[in-house]
Write a structure and sequence with these properties.
about 140 residues, mainly alpha
Length: about 140
């Protein structure tokens, strides 16, 4: 099994959230592109901002909870599969794009809010990992 230092699970989490956030954002931007010229886009942009604000707030708690779970692991070199909880793996498998009848307006507004929310969570995971690395270096020099 692929085992890594437990603090590197924060980095792995961050990279996964960045990748998923980028993919979701690109789907949303593609939907905005298909709607351009058909309708005013500013109402959808306002909805995207509201969706982003909601997910930013929600993912703040998720990052805190996952980071605490990861840093609290007993093993020093756990499996990379411990990056997510079982519920996290289930949620990653759910794709709204697979549901028929959902139009581009929804994907533009919702995904352009969700994508940046996921990106911000990924950045926060990576920043937590970098902060731990910096703290490790500082503690070794004292």
């Amino acid at each position: 099994m692929l085992n890594v230092r437990k603090y590197n699970l924060l980095l792995a989490n961050g990279l996964v959230w960045l990748a998923v956030g980028t993919k979701i954002l690109l789907i949303g931007l593609g939907a905005y592109g298909r709607l351009a010229g058909q309708r005013p886009l500013w109402p959808l942009a306002l909805i995207s901002l509201a969706v982003f604000a909601g997910f930013y707030w929600m993912f703040t708690g998720v990052v805190r909870k996952y980071a605490a779970r990861i840093t609290g692991l007993e093993e020093e070199r756990p499996s990379l599969l411990k990056t997510f909880s079982p519920k996290g793996y289930i949620l990653m498998g759910i794709g709204l794009k697979q549901i028929p009848g959902i139009g581009d307006a929804f994907f533009a507004a919702f995904y352009c809010g969700l994508g940046p929310g996921l990106l911000s969570a990924g950045i926060r995971f990576i920043l937590r990992r970098l902060r731990i690395g910096r703290d490790d270096k500082n503690s070794k020099t004292v």
